[in-house]
Design goal:
Keywords: Membrane, Transmembrane, Transmembrane helix. The protein has about 120 residues and is mainly alpha-helical. It has one domain. It is about 80% helix and about 0% strand. The chain is built from 5 helices and no strands. The two termini are about 40 Å apart.
Length: about 120
């Protein structure tokens, strides 16, 4: 048995002017979204590893300070790192965005996929 033929109303609905314009762009959009999603997931997992390393380092320093093997001047650490972290936080996101979307014709789809990947619960 053969499949029923498509009715004229469904074929005309599928060949709208908008679809005709978007059809050549779909491969770039889908690749951009997929690569953005994968990059978002990778950044999320790398961020978790970095936070774990920072946490373990803090615990190690606190243990050494507790057993009086080292003395840590936390006010001095804060004074040294605060300007660097403030500047890096403001400029880091802009720099990362420029690096990840440089020379990409599908930067919009990539950015959307990146946001979805960062928010995904995988």
């Amino acid at each position: 048995m053969s499949a029923p033929a498509a009715s004229p109303s469904t074929t005309s609905a599928l060949s709208s002017p908008i679809l005709d314009v978007l059809q050549p762009l779909l491969p770039d959009l889908s690749v951009g979204a997929l690569l953005g999603f994968a990059t978002g997931l990778a950044l999320r997992h790398i961020g978790r590893v970095v936070l774990i390393v920072v946490g373990v380092l803090f615990i190690t320093l606190q243990l050494l300070a507790y057993f009086e093997l080292v003395s840590i001047n936390w006010l001095k650490v804060q004074a040294l790192t605060e300007p660097w972290l403030r500047q890096g936080g403001e400029q880091g996101a802009q720099w990362l965005s420029r690096v990840l979307t440089a020379n990409l014709p599908f930067a919009g789809a990539f950015s959307a996929g990146l946001l979805v990947g960062l928010r995904a619960r995988v």
